[in-house]
Amino acid sequence: MFREVNLLRTRDVTVEYSVMGTGEPILLFHGGHSNCHEEFGYTRLLEAGYSIITPSRAGYGQTSDITDLKKACCMYHNILDHLAVEKVHIIAVSAGGPTGIMFSAMFPDRVASLTLQCAVTKPWLTPQHREYKVAKLIFSPSSEKRTWKIVATLTNLLPKLTFRMMASSFSTLPYSEVKKRLDHGYIEQFRKMNNRQRSYSGFLIDLEQNQCEYFAQMRLIQAPTLIMHSNHDSSVPISHPQTARELIPHSEMCILDSWGHLIWIGKHAAEYDDALISFLTRSSSN
Q1: How many CB atoms lie within 10 A of CB 193?
Q2: What's the rounded Cα separation, in Å, for the pair 27 and 29?
Q3: pLDDT tens track for 144-183
Q4: Which of 13, 108, 162, 280 reaches 20 to 30 Å from 114, CA-CA?
Q5: Residue in 34, 51, 94, 201 annotated catalytic
Q6: If pLDDT is split at 50, 70 and 90, which confidence band does 125 have?
Q7: CA 166 – CA 121 distance, rounded (Å)
Q8: Helix pair 159-166, 144-157: axis angle to 10 deg
């Protein structure tokens, strides 16, 4: 489906964004290592009649390196003004969770609903974690392009082996259980993901923003909120959706027995899609 990509320049900052579809608007904040060319979950939303506005978040793609999350959210708000969009459904994915939370707290009059998908909602990967130290090394601006080229090459040559090697970074389940929750299309979806991933300087910005607490902002959210997560997510622990449910006033949980962090891949993906469309439909009537 056609995706229009544009740049919006405001004073000293640039934001890259894409628009797909022509229906009721969704503003989607992608996860780590992604950009405005993200694809996970888009097909069902577009088929259901929604349009999707996807900014490349701060430091990703051609968007400026903005470390101040409030300033970044003002930049995304400018996109809505530029497109003359009054109100949107927010979907915030994984490391994009803090952006969705902050935006919803700052601009309640522009938010019809908030959906957190396997989202970070509190301090995550602190400097004491081994994963944090490794990420700072292999996803730095000087090395991330080479890192993703190696990952893409391995995935294209040996997709099933590469998936098996990386499965534990997404799932707490043993691989024998992961396989039971996958479908025939998982390898191609995984391969395409690893071929479009880039970190630029965005993931290092994510790491710093994800050291903060967003408890006060979650308490300020007025929009109905859907919290979607896998019970077996090893990337973002189950405590993150639990915290969001406790703090966001008008929130509900959708926790499924899917294989792991990539909730758009596998046998449970359709259940997530159905739950999301149902929630968006109900939220549109509010």
Answers
A1: 20
A2: 7
A3: 999 999 999 999 999 999 999 999 999 999 999 999 999 9
A4: 13
A5: 94
A6: confident
A7: 24
A8: 120
DSSP assignment of 187-213 equals HHHHHHHHHH---TTHHHHHHHHTTS-
Whole-number pLDDT of residue 285: 53
φ, ψ dihedrals at 229, nearest 5°: -160, 155
Pairing mode, strands 4-10 and 13-20: antiparallel
Strand ranges (DSSP E) for the chain?
A: 4-10, 13-20, 24-29, 50-55, 88-93, 111-117, 225-230, 251-256
How far from 13 is each of 72, 105, 179, 202, 272, CA to CA, in Å?
9, 22, 44, 15, 35
* 132 CB-side CA count, 13 A: 14
66: its two tokens? 């903005």
| SS3 of residue 72 by DSSP | helix
Q: Tell the residue number behind the tokens 């400018």, with chain if given.
A: 78
* pLDDT one-digit tens code per residue, 240-268: 999 999 999 999 999 999 999 999 999 99
Question: Do the Cβ atoms of 27 and 91 come closer than 8 Å?
Answer: yes
CA Rg value for the chain: 18
> Are 235 and 282 in contact, with CB atoms under 8 Å apart?
no
Active site residue 94: yes
CA 204 to chain centre: 15
Digit-coded pLDDT (tens) for 69-95? 999 999 999 999 999 999 999 999 999
| Residues 280 and 224 sit within 8 Å (Cβ to Cβ) | no
